């Protein structure tokens, strides 16, 4: 044997034949040949080499040697005497590195710090942890072993923990039945003689229990039912809204036709034509032609506007002017008409509901001016309240007033109420039902300082943005 660990055989003719090589990083100290075996004492234990098979095996202090530093070997029958760093030691020739690995014991078991009986079935809540303290009887490994555990019902892989760990903890175990297997593995990779087995059950959280799933199912069915009911209610509400809109549109068309009827009622037409006939009889052809032209223009305009829901303010004012000229023709005495349109008002761009102003002008003539003696005056003022985007139309007359008119109607037992104003009020109510607050009407009684009636004022306000 050389210092490099090479072993040679010297034949009878003194020739050298290489036998084997001591494993690397091993320093040989002594060599013994006996019974077809080579025994080599090294700084890493006793190495044995089978001459027939060429297989190396080794023994160390983990296998029972007093020390890994084997300096000399002597054969004594079935024993070998080893000179080690810790004295002489006798070992049997058949000593093998394969020895019993020892046993593992469960010393203490805890559930969230609470000590448990390891022999009883374990019951844990879903958020509780399990921990245990182990002890291994395997002194030859000199604590160079490892603990291992697994949950075979969930994962067959072993979890390895160093032997220096005093307590092993499993922070969370899935709900349901479980089992835990625990063992140790020695320095040679051999398992312990026994395996500790624990059995138990983890109670699932309430959201993973059958009654919770049933409750969620019931809630889902209830929500589906409520959503379907809401959907049906929404569709019904939409249908009702559409029906309401259609009713409003129909009523607005009807009210527009009624407004047209108010403009062109037979009594008014009869009076206008009678007045024109009077001018013809008086041979005043110029006035007769002028009023006939105004009448035909008014009829044309009214028939044209009757098909439209709204028109330009300028067109409404032009139609109103033609109507006032015809009413003026039928009045006795002087008549003054004043029309003031503020420069802020874009009469050609602003659109208002068709035939909106005329019924109140008609009412001023029929119930105010027609019964007044002396000078008769009608004023129309149009201006714009820019802060609220409101178009204001004021109609003022110096007639006898509403109180005096009511008294005259009572005396004559006519109990007359303006058909034009009544239909117009209903039409405004329909317009405001479709668009809330679009048109507002206020009627004021004008009086002097003594409380005598001096006429009537009608204020119409229209939100022009709508």
Provide a quick synopsis of the model.
This protein is an alpha+beta fold. It has four domains: 6-92, Lipocalin, CATH 2.40.128; 103-207, Immunoglobulin-like (Sandwich); 209-236; 242-463, Heat Shock Protein 90.
Walkthrough of the structure:
With 466 residues, this protein is α+β, with helices and mostly antiparallel strands. It has four domains: 6-92, Lipocalin (Beta Barrel), CATH 2.40.128.630; 103-207, Immunoglobulins (Immunoglobulin-like, Sandwich); 209-236; 242-463, Histidine kinase-like ATPase, C-terminal domain (Heat Shock Protein 90), CATH 3.30.565. It has seven helices and 25 strands. The protein has helices spanning 210-263, 266-281, 285-305, 313-329, 358-369, 401-411, 419-434; strands at residues 6-10, 16-21, 28-34, 37-42, 45-50, 56-59, 70-76, 79-84, 87-92, 103-111, 114-116, 122-125, 130-137, 146-150, 159-162, 168-170, 176-185, 196-203, 310-312, 335-341, 351-353, 376-385, 390-397, 439-447, 453-463. The strands form seven sheets. It has a five-stranded mixed β-sheet, with no helix packed on it. Strands 20-22-23-25-24 form a five-stranded mixed β-sheet. A hairpin with a 5-residue loop joins strand 5 (45-50) and strand 6. Helix 1 packs antiparallel against helix 7 and helix 4 (313-329) packs parallel to helix 5. The longest helix is centred in the middle third of the chain and has 54 residues, at 210-263. It is rod-shaped, with a radius of gyration of 60 Å. It starts with 5 loop residues before the first strand and ends with a strand. The mean pLDDT is 82.
């Amino acid at each position: 044997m050389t210092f490099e660990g090479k072993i040679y055989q010297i034949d009878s003719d003194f020739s050298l034949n290489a036998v084997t090589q001591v494993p690397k990083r091993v320093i040989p100290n002594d060599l013994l040949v006996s019974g077809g075996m080579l025994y080599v004492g090294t700084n890493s234990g006793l190495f044995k080499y089978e001459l027939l098979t060429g297989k190396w095996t080794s023994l160390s202090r983990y296998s029972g040697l007093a020390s890994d530093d084997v300096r000399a070997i002597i054969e004594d029958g079935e024993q070998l005497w080893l000179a080690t760093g810790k004295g002489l030691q006798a070992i049997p020739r058949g000593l093998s590195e394969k020895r019993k690995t020892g046993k593992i014991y469960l010393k203490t078991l805890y559930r969230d710090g609470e000590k448990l009986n390891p022999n009883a079935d374990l019951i844990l809540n879903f958020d509780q942890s399990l921990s245990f303290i182990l002890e291994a009887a395997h002194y030859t490994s000199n604590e160079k072993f490892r603990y291992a555990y697994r949950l075979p019902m969930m994962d067959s892989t072993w979890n390895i923990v160093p032997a220096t760990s005093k307590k092993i903890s499993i922070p969370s175990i899935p709900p349901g039945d479980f089992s835990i297997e625990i063992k140790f593995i020695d320095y040679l990779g051999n398992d312990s003689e026994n395996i500790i087995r624990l059995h138990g059950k983890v109670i699932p959280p309430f959201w993973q229990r059958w009654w919770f799933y049933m409750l969620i199912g019931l809630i889902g069915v209830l929500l589906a039912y409520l959503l379907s009911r809401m959907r049906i209610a929404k569709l019904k509400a939409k249908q009702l809204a559409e029906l309401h809109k259609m009713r409003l549109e129909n009523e607005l068309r009807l009210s527009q036709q009624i407004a047209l009827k108010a403009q062109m009622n037979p009594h008014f037409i009869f009076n206008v034509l009678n007045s024109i006939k009077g001018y013809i009889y008086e041979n005043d052809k110029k006035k007769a032609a002028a009023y006939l032209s105004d009448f035909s223009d008014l009829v044309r305009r009214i028939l044209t506007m009757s098909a439209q829901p709204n028109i330009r303010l300028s067109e409404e004012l032009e139609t109103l002017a033609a109507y006032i000229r015809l009413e003026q023709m039928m009045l006795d005495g002087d008549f003054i008409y004043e029309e003031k349109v503020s420069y802020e008002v874009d009469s050609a761009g602003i659109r208002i509901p068709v035939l909106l102003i005329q019924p109140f002008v008609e009412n001023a003539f029929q119930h105010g001016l027609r019964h007044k003696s002396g000078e008769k005056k009608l004023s129309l003022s149009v201006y714009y309240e820019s802060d609220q985007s409101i178009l204001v139309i004021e109609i003022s007359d110096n007639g006898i007033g509403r109180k005096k008119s009511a008294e005259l109607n009572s005396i004559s037992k006519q109990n007359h109420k303006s058909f034009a104003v009544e239909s117009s009020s209903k039409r405004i109510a329909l317009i405001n039902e479709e668009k809330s607050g679009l048109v507002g009407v206020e009627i004021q009684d004008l009086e002097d300082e003594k409380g005598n009636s001096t006429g009537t004022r009608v204020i119409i306000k229209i939100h022009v943005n709508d």
